[in-house]
Amino acid sequence: MHDALLDIIGFMSRPEPDVALMSDMSMPLERALLPLLVRIDRRGPIGVVELAEVVGRDYTTVSRQVARLDELGLVVRRAGTRDKRVREAEVTELGREMADAIDRMREELVSELMAGWTNAERRDLARLLKRMAGDMNEWLLRRKSEDRE
Prior knowledge:
Elements: H1 2-13, H2 15-24, H3 33-43, E1 46-47, H4 48-55, H5 59-71, E2 75-79, E3 87-91, H6 93-113, H7 119-148
Antiparallel strand pairs: 1-3, 2-3
Helix pairs in contact: 3-6, 4-5
């Protein structure tokens, strides 16, 4: 299972699928910004430190990349809702449209990759992956809670 997960993560992290998506969509976006835009769309508003943790990148790098997304009009940055010292990023309408287009293109890619799968197999995989992701998130929350104690 570990090898399969590494292969999936490796595939999703490779530049080729994202470059192909951006080319198909005539998207004027640097490849490194694409995962950030999607994450901000899914989890926003989100602070840069939390976003950096989620994507596994350095805070300063993510801060520069979010500033670039802001320059492109895809996100806005403002004071945090819970802590005014924290700058949070949230997608704009243009950013949401681009994230939705990325989602559609990725769904098409996955459909192509799973063309030989039955509907039941697809549902089972989705259910099990959601369960695993939930367990992973719970584990992270427990670890953070333990670290604070």
